[in-house]
Amino acid sequence: MAVKVNQKVVVEEEVSSLSKQEIEFILNIIDNSMIPGKYINLGNVVVQKLKNQYEMAGKSVIQVTSALKDYQQKKTAPPKKPKFEKRGEEVWIEE
């Protein structure tokens, strides 16, 4: 269900706003059900997303926004190049 506020559609309340109790319920249903092998990867992704939402459910809006900013900075940062070092006959790679 969407609500119009100043000509903007707010869908977030119905889509992403789950309480801890609702998330626990969904995780229990998934845990106690049998997922066919062809959908096991999708099941793992869904469980991971639910766990992330469960962790965020108890945090304040400020903590969530700062975590999102940190994630965006990490995502946009250029990837580190591994350092190669030759020691005698061996080549060492620093990660």
What does this structure look like?
This protein has about 100 residues and is of the alpha+beta class. The chain has a domain of about 35 residues. The protein has 4 helices and 4 strands. A two-stranded antiparallel ribbon has the order 1-2. It is flat. The relative contact order is 0.08. The mean pLDDT is about 80.
Quick overview of this protein structure:
This protein is an alpha+beta fold and 95 residues long. It has helices at residues 12-15, 20-32, 40-57, 61-76, and strands spanning 3-5, 8-10, 83-87, 90-94. It is 54% helix and 17% strand.
What would you call the structural class? alpha+beta
Number of strands: 4
Strand content: 15-25%
Can you tell me the residue ranges where pLDDT is under 50 for at least 5 consecutive residues? none
Biggest sheet overview: 2 strands, antiparallel
Distance separating the two termini: 47 Å
The percent range for helix content is 40-55%
Helices, by number, come to: 4
Main sheet: strand order: 1-2
The pLDDT mean sits at: 78
Which descriptor suits the 3D outline? flat
State Rg. Answer: 21 Å
* Element-by-element helix/strand order: EEHHHHEE
